[in-house]
Amino acid sequence: MANVTFGGKPVTLLGNEVKAGDKAPNFTVLANDMSEVTLNDTKGQVRLITSVPSLDTGVCDAETRRFNEEANSLGNVKVLTVSVDLPFAQKRWCAAAGIENVQTLSDHRALSFGEAYGVAIQENRLLTRAVFVVDSSDTVTYVEYVSEATNHPNYEAALEAAKSAK
């Protein structure tokens, strides 16, 4: 598993670490309207998927806004952000932040995404910060588990990986 700290303290990640070249694991999460969303719902598209601890924190807010701004330059790439925030809170946050190009998804119910992608933090039931690019054939082409969950990801590398995925 990836070695990750949260606030400088080591945490235990549940599930399986995903690596570039792996078949992307399916998951079931909730959209802002409480409908179920799976990886298969975006089959045939390139996906840039981020996991964040909570949209109501400074780094998560800034990260999601950044990917929202960059989404139009990515072409036919679906940008998804997963957290354990409740769908109602995600919907409110998106409206207040003007997020239109990123789909926020909630993993609060079952940690399906968190465990499938090895980002669920056992100690506080949040998701650690990570970025995954999944190509149109459901192969993971890029992975970054951010070593300190309160730090920003490598935006440039993630965006370049999404642009070059087919």
Please outline what is shown here.
This protein has 166 residues and is an alpha+beta fold.
Outline the structure in words.
There is one protein chain. With 166 residues, this protein is of the alpha+beta class. 23% of the residues lie in helices and 26% in strands. It is built from four helices and eleven strands. The chain has helices at 58-70, 87-97, 112-116, 155-164, and strands at residues 5-6, 9-10, 13-14, 28-30, 36-38, 46-51, 77-83, 102-106, 120-121, 130-134, 140-145. Strand 6 (46-51), helix 1 and strand 7 form a beta-alpha-beta unit. The longest helix has 13 residues, at 58-70. The chain starts with a strand and ends with a helix. The mean pLDDT is 97.
